[in-house]
Amino acid sequence: MSSINPNNINGTYPIAGQDNDSQGFRDNFTNIKNNLAFAKTEVEDLQNNALLKGALSGTTLNNEMGNAQLKGVQCLRFTDTIKDLSTLSGTVTVSWQDAHYQVLTTSGAITLAFTGWPTSGFYTTLRLQLNVTTPGTVGDTLTLPAAVSVGLETIKGASSQVISFATAGTYFFDFTTYDGGATIAIADVSRNRAPSYQYSAPVTNFSTVVTPGSDRVIFDPAGTLANGTITLPTGNVDATTVTVSSTQIITAFKTNPSTGTTLVPSANITLAAGTSVSYFYHASEARWYKIA
Question: Are strands 82-95 and 158-159 parallel, antiparallel or unpaired?
Answer without folding.
Answer: unpaired
